[in-house]
Write a structure and sequence with these properties.
The protein has about 210 residues and is α+β, with helices and mostly antiparallel strands. It has a single domain (about 1-210), classed as Glutaredoxin. Helices cover about 55% and strands about 10% of the residues. The protein has helices spanning about 10-25, 55-65, 65-85, 100-110, 115-125, 135-145, 150-155, 160-175, 195-210; strands at about 1-5, 35-40, 180-185, 190. It has a 4-stranded mixed beta sheet with strand order 2-1-3-4, with helices on both faces. Helix 1 (about 10-25) links the parallel strand 1 (about 1-5) and strand 2 (about 35-40). The chain is globular and about 55 Å long.
Length: about 210
């Protein structure tokens, strides 16, 4: 059974949701039958990459908050991430458009390395403070998961996989997806948000049972 996950590299709850879903999958008796496919979504398609701006400043601008309010919110999110074993370093995060990172994810999918690529991109953005819009950075991250560095560099200079990203975003609107993460199981069941592992486990069990009917 296929599980499609709409997600954005710069979405903290997408990383948290990934970890919670993995915990559910680890408990699922038929986990070997589950195929995971990551789908592109952009929370802010028009975002400009601004390495000199803090993520708190960015959030304050787009949400109409104070910088202090943005920091408090990110501190709370960091605590949620810590509970599932992820370290968020928002003070190091670089405001970066995620379009090219999504293209890299699609390239990784072609080579059977998409889940590894998504994990690497999340860690680079949230934990390591890397610029996930910078092409040299993306080449290095791709190589780390097993992609050919020269092929990644060539892809990033082209428009390869751009239409794949746009199709995913379009498909999200067709499904009525307005926020991520959003999990679609067997094209029949939807789970919105970074739910607890128990909720994911229940959804997996129901979806697999329905596909056998």
């Amino acid at each position: 059974m296929k599980v499609e996950i709409w997600s954005d590299v710069m979405c903290p709850f997408c990383y948290i949701g990934k970890r919670k879903f993995e915990r559910a999958l680890a408990q699922f008796p038929e986990r070997e039958s589950i195929e995971i496919e990551w789908k592109s979504f952009q929370l802010n398609p028009g975002m400009k990459t601004e390495p000199g701006k803090s993520i708190n400043e960015y959030l304050a601008e787009v949400k109409g908050w104070s910088v202090e309010e943005a920091k408090k919110m990110n501190d709370r999110v960091s605590q949620i991430a810590s509970a599932v074993g992820i370290t968020f370093n928002f003070d190091q995060a670089i405001v970066a458009n995620s379009f090219d990172a999504h293209r890299l994810s699609h390239m990784a999918k072609k080579h059977g390395l998409q889940d590894q690529m998504e994990e690497r991109l999340f860690a680079a953005y949230f934990t390591e403070g890397k610029n996930t819009a910078d092409h040299d950075t993306l080449v290095a991250l791709g190589a780390e998961v097993g992609l050919d560095a020269a092929e990644v560099a060539s892809m990033l200079k082209s428009q390869d996989y751009a239409n794949d990203v746009r199709f995913d975003v379009h498909e999200a609107t067709q499904f009525g997806i307005r926020g991520v993460p959003f999990f679609v199981l067997a094209r029949k069941f939807g789970v919105s948000g970074a739910q607890e592992p128990e909720a994911f486990l229940e959804a997996l069990t129901t979806a697999v049972a329905q596909t056998k009917v």
